[in-house]
Write a sequence for this structure.
């Protein structure tokens, strides 16, 4: 942590508002917002703003934010139980491990956020049919499975592609569209895939930083499997690959290329910084840079989809 973050951590009281704020990890909400943003933009592109349904769009944003917080709390709780968040941890300190939030209080909070997400997502049945209940249940189930099982088996990146790309992008577009336009062929599958690839850069940096700790704890992430050198090159290729997908989906490649430049340049700088730092707590800075890049990608791609 930076000196400012350390000073903040020292002043955190047990189960206080500040403790819950830190446990929620609001900086990660960027990753939840961007897929919904792109799905909403694609719906606008299809409808040209006619019969555009703002109510389901708002519900999608709310559901995504609450689910992200829920996932963060689940991750905090179970990593504490397993002893993953020990004194060797390089990432931002976790609330349960630090004693900022008690385990019983965290269990109650997870119950509340899970119920709140379910209640928020339920009205989407009105706009997308009863299938929305199944999709919501799937999101909630994998929210738990990611931390408790799948992340340690190298499936984290696939889950990011699915739950931060394919599902939120396509689902948001689907429920916003008027019923007569809700067709599978209209779904932004390519854009959703590109989004998932970009959001996965956050996980790649996180696991790149934690490689040694993950090896020691038996957590078999993709980075542990392929090594840090190969991860660096995969990380470099992610954003260019996503931008190529986006550009080929629209009829104005010049505009798409120009709007992709800010993200590409920031991504290249982030990659160079990651390779220079290599290891240690300083990589948390790269994590922040990756989150910023995701947001810039979301804004620029939204503009491209709407005006292309």
């Amino acid at each position: 942590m930076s000196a400012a973050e350390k000073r903040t951590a020292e002043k955190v009281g047990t189960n206080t508002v500040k403790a819950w704020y830190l446990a929620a990890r609001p900086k990660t909400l960027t990753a939840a917002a961007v897929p919904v943003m792109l799905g909403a933009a694609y719906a606008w592109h299809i409808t040209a703003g006619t019969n555009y349904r703002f109510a389901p769009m708002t519900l999608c944003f709310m559901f995504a934010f609450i689910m992200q917080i829920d996932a963060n709390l689940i991750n905090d709780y179970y990593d504490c139980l397993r002893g993953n968040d020990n004194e060797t941890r390089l990432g931002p300190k976790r609330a349960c491990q630090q004693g900022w939030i008690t385990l019983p209080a965290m269990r109650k909070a997870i119950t509340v956020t899970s119920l709140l997400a379910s209640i928020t997502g339920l009205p989407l049945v009105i706009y997308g049919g009863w299938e929305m209940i199944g999709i919501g249940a799937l999101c909630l189930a994998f929210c738990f499975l990611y931390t408790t099982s799948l992340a340690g088996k190298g499936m984290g990146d696939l889950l990011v592609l699915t739950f931060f790309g394919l599902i939120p992008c396509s689902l948001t577009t689907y429920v916003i569209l008027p019923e007569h336009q809700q067709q599978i062929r209209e779904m932004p599958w390519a854009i959703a895939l590109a989004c998932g690839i970009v959001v996965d850069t956050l996980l790649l940096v996180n696991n790149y930083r934690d490689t040694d700790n993950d090896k020691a704890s038996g957590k078999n992430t993709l980075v542990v499997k392929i090594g840090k050198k190969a991860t660096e090159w995969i990380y470099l290729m992610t954003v260019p690959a996503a931008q190529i997908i986006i550009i080929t989906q629209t009829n104005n490649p010049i505009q798409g290329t120009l709007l992709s430049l800010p993200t590409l340049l920031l991504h290249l700088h982030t990659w160079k910084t990651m390779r220079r730092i290599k290891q240690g707590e300083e990589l948390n800075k790269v994590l922040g840079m990756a989150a910023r890049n995701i947001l810039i990608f979301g804004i620029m791609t939204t503009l491209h989809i709407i005006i292309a």
Remarks:
- The CA atoms of residues 71 and 143 lie 6 Å apart.
- The mean pLDDT is 89.
- The chain has 15 helices and no strands.
